[in-house]
Amino acid sequence: MKQVDLIIVGQGLAGCALAWQAWFRGMRPLIVESDSQPGRHCSRVAAGLLNPVRGRGAPKLVWRSEEMAHTARAHYDNVALHIGRRVFHPTPILRHAAPEVQASGHSLKRGGAPAGKTLSERFPGSSPDKPLLVRCGGWLDTATYIDSTRMFFRERGCYFNETYSECDTKFGASVHDGVRWRDYRAKALIVAAGLGARELPSFSSLPFRAAAGRIAEIEPPSPILSDEIHVFDGHWLIKRSGGPHLCGATYEFVDPESVPNEFPDELRPLTNRILGPAWACSHIRIGVRPILRQSRPLAGRHPRIPSLAWLNGLGSRGVSTAPRVAAALLEHLLLGAELDPEFDAMRCRHVHQFLQ
Question: Which fold does the domain 2-45+143-207+294-355 belong to in CATH?
Answer without folding.
Answer: FAD/NAD(P)-binding domain (3.50.50)
